[in-house]
Design a protein that fits this description.
Length: 86
């Protein structure tokens, strides 16, 4: 699963079997950021699918998180190339 640690807000855990997909996007909930700067996790909250987006620190942080999601077997929509693949 994913543990989301938030500063100045409640942290939370999403069990792996509730995660529907992970994607790279430019925004969530009407916010627009730089291209490919937001990781969006779609998960089930009861019977409702919920998107949660966050911006990691830089491209390296994003790549590490996405690669960890791939290694964990999550459905990742857009693969981010590692430094070795670039």
């Amino acid at each position: 699963g994913l543990w989301i640690e938030r500063v100045h807000a409640n942290s939370f855990y999403v069990p792996a079997d509730e995660i529907n997909r992970v994607r790279i996007d430019r925004g969530v909930a009407g916010t627009v950021r730089n291209k490919d700067s937001v990781i969006v996790v779609t998960f089930a909250l009861g019977t409702t699918l919920v998107d949660f987006g966050f911006r990691p620190d830089g491209d390296e942080g994003r790549d590490l998180i996405v690669q960890a999601c791939i290694a964990a077997g999550f459905n990742v929509d857009e693969l981010v190339p590692t430094k070795e693949q670039s």
